[in-house]
Structures are given as C-alpha cells and as structure tokens.
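Lay summary. Proteins are chains of building blocks that fold into shapes, and those shapes determine what they do. In this project we predict the shape from the chain. Here is one chain we studied, written as its sequence of building blocks.
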Amino acid sequence: MHKWSPTIWGVLNPLAYIASRWTPSPRIVQRAALAALVMSVAIVVTGGAVRLTGSGLGCDTWPKCTDDSLIVTQAQGFHGAIEFGNRMLTYVLSAAVGWGIIAARSAKPWRHSLTKLGWVQFAIVMSNAVLGGITVRTGLNPYSVAGHFLLATALIAVTTATWQRTREGDGAPRPRVPGPVRKLSWALLATTLVLIAAGTVVTGAGPHAGDSSEIKRMPFDWDTTVHVHAAAAWLVCALGIAMWLVLRVVDAPADTRARARDLLIVLLAQGAIGYVQYATQVPEVLVGAHMLGSCLVWIAVVRVALSLRERPVEQAEVPVQSDPQLSAV
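And here is the predicted shape, written in a compact code that computers can read:
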C-alpha cells in the first residue's frame, strides 16, 4: 500500500497535520471558543455603529468597497472608513472561529462535537458575509438588514453552546432538573427569539435607516411595533422570573440558579435602557447599548437552557481482567 509522506499529507489535510504536531490544553480550547463568542458579539456592536453613524453605504458596493477599489479610499471619508472597518472585522471573526476549529481538532482526544460546532460557526459567518453584501447592493433593504442581524443572533447561539461544550465532556446529556422546568426553558428561548425578531422590525421601521440617503423602511407604524416589542420583553421577563423561582423550588444546582439570576440582571438593565431610549427619542448611544444588551440577553437565555443538563466525560471501558487462579480451576 502506498504511504503518503507527512509533507504531502499536511498539504492534503492541514488540520490533521497540525493536530499531529500540537496538543492544546483544555484551557486553550476554552479560550478559543470564548474568543469566537466575544467576536460574534463585537461584530454585532460594530455593525450597529455602522448603521447609527449613517455609514451603511460608506462602501457602496460589495465585495469591493467601490467599483474601482477593493479597499476604502480617501473619497469615501469617515463613513467609508467605518463601513470598511466593520468588513475587516469579519476576517478577525473568521480567524477566531478558525482558531476554535483547529484547537478542537488538535485536542487529545479529538473533540469531534466541538469541531462540528466550529464548522457550523464558519458556515454562518460566510452566509452572513454574503447577506451583508446583498444588503449593501440592495441599498440597505430593511428586510435584508433584519436577516443580517438574525443570522448574527444564530451565530451567538452556536458560539455560546460551543463555549459551554468546551467545559463539558462528550457523553450523552443528562437532565439536572425535572422535565417541566426544561419545557419552561424552551418557552423562554422561543419567546426571546420573538422579542429579538420584533426588535428587528422596530429597527426596520424606526428612524435610524443606516445612511443619510433615502432608504426604504418597513411599512409598519413605529409606535405600534415598539409596544409589541415591549410586550414581548415583559413576557420574557415574566418567564425569566418564573424560571428563577422554579429553580429554587426544585433545588436546582447552584450554578444553574446563578445563570437564572444573571439573566434577571441583564433583563433589568436591558429594559431600563429600552425605556430610556424610547423616552429620549432613541439617541444613537443608547441604541448601540441596547444592541449590546440584546446580545447579552440572548447569551444569558441560552446559558440558562444549557445549564439544565450536563454531559459527563466519557470514560474508556477497561477490559475485565480474569483471575489466573480462577482460570486454572
């Protein structure tokens, strides 16, 4: 049988080549996953800065910045620099995701589940990059902008789950609370998704279009969408309080109750920002803070759901050793 040399094998499968020469510690794998999570939030916040500074069309085409230049030019000015800077952060995010994939592949033993989650992250990043280009080419179509944010939300969910998995084993999940509590967590997740989706409608119908030019907006009454969004927020708060109380009643593990407490704190801060920005005619700084809060609320909700189960470290089965004396009988 023909044997490939290490050099040729490295060209054909660079991940396997790296894994054969590098074994990251569990802490490094965790840090790689956390870096991807942090960058997935950072790309949302900087994307918000692009919209709030009216720089959405600072680079007026895609994948180039202009028809004649791949990068931003002096003619694009401040808005071009902001938009192009956000595009460049996509590469930083991709590098963070790539680091996570390499670290998971190189871990001993190989964390197959983490590698798969890493490739899911990569697929979402690439899909959102393309959708971002479509958003620019369609003149910041509000529905495309909403889809762009929802894909970013999906990425945050996957990076959060990956970060959690780096601190667990690969065994089958085992529940830590009764079934009705887990069903409550699914209701909390679903309602939070509705809240985030309603937030994209508020944005699509609201005053911050993303550019100083005439931008198409969603044909909904803004005050009505804000009230629908607020109602969804109150429902999420009610479910969050219910989760916190129920976890205490069933005597859930301390870390699970801590996750529910963290969720209530984030919800309280996010609600305060939301009402203040509405009362003060949605200033840009508070809108940006509210976008960051949206990411933190989603992370907190996902972490609550993940804390309701555990995955033990799989132990290799040790063959039973027979007693020589018994064998001789």
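What the prediction tells us: The beta strands are 174-175, 309-310.
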